Amino acid sequence: MRLNLGWDRATCAKNFHVTERTLHNWETGKNDIPFTAYKLLRLLNRMELPGDSWHGWYFLGGTLYTPEGHPLTGQDGSWWSLLVRRAAMFDQLCTRVHGGGTVGARTPGGAPPAGRARARARPPSPRRQPGGGAKRRRP
Hints:
The chain is mainly alpha-helical. It has helices spanning 9-16, 20-28, 35-44, 77-98, and strands spanning 58-60, 63-65, 71-72.
């Protein structure tokens, strides 16, 4: 797997903080490779990420890709932080303006939360009279 990464034995040994002899023993089967080193090699080779919640995510060339194929770099973390702070501020504003909860909050079944009045009631829709459209004039 180290060859897929373009690592020679010296580079791989340096990255795992072991001697080249230890790495040779792992590769020849003389000693078992530690599970953490094995998992890291699989991760770096784009074979897996730990846990079911990471299904579909992968690394390629130092970039993390979402299941939809969107690239994420280490610099994107600052934007996540900003997004979370803005969402929290929006929630506080909604609480002040609407007296609790978020705008359009729903229960898991899709209904508005119990005991919560609507901010604005819709005006009743005009109903059509039986017999249809506009009145006809008599000649």
